[in-house]
Amino acid sequence: MTNPMRGVFAVPTTPYTEDGDQNLDAVAGRIDQVLASGVTGILGLGATGEALALSAAEREAQIKTIVSAVDGRAHVVIGCMAYTPSEMSAQITAAAGWGADAVMVTPPFYGGLDPEAVIAALHPVLSASEVPVMVYNNPHSTGTDLLPVHLASLTDTGRLWSVKETSGAATRIRELRERLGEDIEIFVGADGIALEGFAQGASGWVAASAWLLPEQCQTLWELAARGDWAGAVDLWRSLGRVLGLIEDNSAFISLIKQALGRFGYEQGPVRPPLPTADPEALATLLDAIAELERKHTP
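The structure corresponding to this sequence follows.
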């Protein structure tokens, strides 16, 4: 791929068969459908993909499936989330060897480490990485909020490609852009504030919702990218409600999977300990999607 790594990156779920195994054919088939919308890339083995519930062998099989299914048509980023720096680096080396264009890492996700300790752990990981690295700032899940000043200290590794920003702080995208400049890409990581992030200068969007609604998410990005803010706001009035229903539900992964199943893309359940979305939440989401499609047919 020669196009810049910016724009919309869809985040796959991990579908399972009735026996509880990964359904890799379903992953590959959905990739074809999602790429038809024009998204820039696929970010596999994120939280939405239940990455922490997969064995090493399952990770390998899914990464190879994603790389093969994409087949050079888009960028492939792979989540390499682990507690220790050595395990992060081992996952990065494996993902790069299997064809990933870039990887995503998070702060160690237990222990409430202060930002300085996290940066000390991540710095050698980025320095040794064979491919560009996205750092995922998700204080809700990791217990650590990496501010622009902390992330700036990773730029000297030469491998900090981007930041996925999910703190929810109202001005954070703008602050990251001001501190990191134009050479580091800044992605919105919280679907419910995507349009606000675009308005603050985000490079793109890492979107779990783009696995469910790729055409609408890609359209929103394109409208904002060309400065059609009236069109973007009009779409956002309907799309934002849908994304809020997903993001505000603690069982959002199950909700996405169940909705995909209703649209003919069977996903199977989530793996414990993840919760299962209740029927009422699914019905409300499906009604909102129907209203979105009535007003904005892709």
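The chain has one domain: 7-227.
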